[in-house]
Amino acid sequence: MAAAARVARVVIDSPLPQLDHLFDYAIPEELAADAVPGVRVRVPLRSAGRVADGYLVEVGDPDDGFEGTLSPLEAVVSPARVLTPGVWRLARRLADRSAGTASDILRLAVPGRMVRVEKAWLAARAAAPAAPPGASSRESLSESGASRESMSPLGAAAQDAAAAPAAAAPAAAAPASAAHPAPVAVRGYGERVLEDAVARDERIALRAIPRLVPLPDGTWVGEWAVTLATLAADCWRGGRTAIVAVPDHRDLEQLAAALAVIAPPAAVVRADAGQANTERYRGFLEALSGPRIVIGNRSVVYAPAERLGLLVVWEDSDPLHAEPLSPYVHTRDAALVRQELEGCALVLSGNIRSVETQRLVELGWLRDVGPERVTSPKVVLTANQQAPEPMARAARIPSPAWRAAREALNGDSGRPRGPVLVQVARPGYAPVIACANCGQAARCMNCKGPLHQTRAGSPPSCTVCGRIGTDWQCEHCEHRRFRMVTVGSGRTAEELGRAFPGTRVILADGDHPVQRIGSAPALVVATRGAEPIAEGGYQAVLLLDGERMLARESLHVAEDCLRWWQSAAGLAAPGAPTVLVGVSGPLARDFATGRLVEFAHEELVDRRELRFPPAVRLASVTGTEATVNEVVAAVDPALLVDVLGPAPVEPASRTARSGPDLVRAVLRFEYAHGVDVAAAVRAAVVKNATRRRRAPAGKPGYRPAPTLRVRFDDPEIL
Questions:
Q1: Exposed (0-12), middle (13-18) or buried (19+): which is 570, by Cβ within 10 Å?
Q2: Is the model's pLDDT at 271 over the cut of 60?
Q3: What is the rounded CA–CA span in Å between residue 18 and residue 686?
Q4: Backbone angles phi and psi of 101, in degrees to 5
Q5: Which of 91, 97, 424, 467 has its CA 20 to 30 A from that of 502?
Q6: Nearest to 250 by CA among 510, 596, 561
Q7: How many CB atoms lie within 10 A of CB 553?
């Protein structure tokens, strides 16, 4: 058949769920040479002569029985094939699993086009030797022999252990090693235990070693960064791509520093949300150019990969891995689905074991791998040390913590002098204030937002609208004086500076980012997750506000606190004490004794009894009461465990009370029914999106947007 008679099947870049399918277009003769799968195209839409952007997914023959005339492609934007077959299959599978659209996934996977960068990349590829053309007569991005979702860890749980990884494609010849740094072996897990497991494309739940190590250039990083960098470099030397996803820029800096001494710079591609658009697109095109080591935050899991050999997710329990954009796919879930589709090795690792990962270990889907020698921080629980006076027992920094800090700063007890880390719960000076008379939380008189104090002696100000509360009075008792309820990092640093005169105090939080400090004695006050790395490690670590951290209402609160504490304890020097203030009970004992996996197991047992995730899956449906009831009714009750709600939803802001009242229902269902539940919910979403909505009075022609919102595996509702 002539090239011009072939059909281009295109996915349109649109958030509308009714457009989430492939559209057929005729390929004009003048575009036949460039109209290949993976390129960006522009296509006409039927209404009002509009033109839409999209990706050409498949080139094939016309469907049998079609007698109409297809609209032709408007243009091929670029000859660069930016959408690879693996990424398209992943986007389609994840969209179907989450009742979302594939175009929403592709916006995360493919950065915006930078013309100058792309032209330079195309010119460089044109100058390189051409690869032999494929022998297939039908080019397609959607051809895949992947198994059904019911055979994955995100599908039927009963069949998880029986599924075997697909055979990986034969590795290409290893890249030339003349300019490579010498290969480095993974330390602490046995000779080539992890390297051989990755070469066999195994799925691993890896226990990290909680310590700092120096690199040859003198930079200190976590042992986990060296371990993951070594695995990625070994995979790349075997001629395959490795992708490593980490939660934030601090972890990314450690990983990049470790890779800088293990792999050549040309082999490492960084995909960071903080990069400029040109740099991010240049890195994306580099990942298309052959086997690479691709590192980045949550969206890097969608990076293009030639012969994908390894997928790594570090700290999968971190909430930064939860995608805030539709269809809200978690990095861990995307990695699990991609591993199933491509048959590569998978490593889930972290300072603690997440409950979701523990479920996969107990199902046999992941193999538990730990270090040869178990190392745990030296933890002191102040709640187990009774002070003689009630005031001393209630102190925010009890005497054991003061003593540990003083000994570290002065070099007492035979230990070297060095910095001390003080972890606090909240940034700012006084994050929460209340009426000094009745104790009610202080609210802004303008928008009713919470008030806080930014520095000593300053008047209270609103955290929402920023208004200064110079004329504030309590709305309950009309009192005009307030008191601090919580102490933030700024006030803590001020108090410690007075308690240790002559000692340098360093504040590290979101407003005062600090990446690294030296080995000189200093007091470092940091919010959770913002702790800088000290050269040689901290000589003492004080974990304050533990009870306040645990008071947060969340299903993951214990898991989050354990991760924050373990991450801070891992920054201590060998043998240095980590003092946990004011927390007792099983969680504190598990932290002090290093029973991190046992904690995850016990947490999973409790979740199964309560039918909470990850024992079951859930989906939240938010909208007007009639719309929510319609979506719930569209799902076969036999597929569901139960339905919670609908219940009213409080607006995100107290000032955002315009619009209809919203309710939310929660569907709980087994993993084996996930595909069917998502299909039913998606059909209801499409039906709601295509329904004509009545225009408000006085606004003819205005069509309000639908209020329906669906989120599978919603982490915010429990």
A1: buried
A2: yes
A3: 5
A4: -115, 145
A5: 424
A6: 510
A7: 6
Q: H helices of 452-595, where?
A: 489-499, 546-550, 557-569, 586-593
Q: What is the DSSP string of 340-378?
A: HHH--EEEEEESS--HHHHHHHHTTSSEEE--SS----E
What does the alpha-carbon distance between residue 668 and residue 712 come to, in Å, rounded to a whole number?
A: 10
Interacting residues of 573 by C-beta distance below 8 A, sequence separation 6+? 212, 418, 536, 537, 538, 539
What's the start-to-end Cα distance of the chain, in Å? 57
Place of tokens 């904690």: 599
Lowest mean pLDDT among 484-498, 547-561, 621-635: 484-498
d(CA 500, CA 158): 59
Q: Is the peptide bond preceding residue 132 cis, with omega within 30 degrees of 0?
A: no
For residue 618, the model assigns a pLDDT of: 94
Contact present, 437 and 474 (Cβ < 8 Å): yes
Model confidence pLDDT, tens digit, residues 502-546: 899 999 988 889 999 999 999 999 999 999 999 999 999 999 988
Residue with tokens 């004011």: 582
Report yes or no: 277 and 111 within 8 Å, Cβ to Cβ.
yes
Orientation angle between helical segments 102-109 and 85-97, nearest 10 degrees: 130
| Element spanning 524, H or E | strand 523-527
Are 627 and 708 in contact by the 8 Å Cβ rule? The answer is yes
pLDDT recorded at residue 4: 46
Name which of 170, 30, 643, 97 is nearest 329 in CA terms: 97
- Give the model confidence (pLDDT) of 315-359 as tens digits: 999 999 999 999 999 999 999 999 999 999 999 999 999 999 999
Nearest to 529 by CA among 490, 576, 563: 563
| Cα→Cα distances 121→132, 175, 681, Å | 19, 20, 42
List, for residues 590-612, the tens digit of each pLDDT value. 999 999 999 999 999 999 999 99
Q: Which residue has the higher pLDDT, 480 or 624?
A: 624
* Whether the bond into 646 is cis, omega within 30 of 0: yes
Q: Which residues contact 688 (CB under 8 A, 6 or more apart)?
A: 623, 627, 630, 631, 706, 708
Residue 163 pLDDT class (50, 70, 90 cuts): very low
Burial 235-272 (b: 16+ CB within 10 A, else e): bbbbbbbbbbbbbbbbbbbbbbbbbbbbbbeebbbbbb
Query: What pTM value is reported for the model?
Result: 0.88
- The SS3 call for residue 120 is helix
Which token pair is 583? Answer: 């927390």
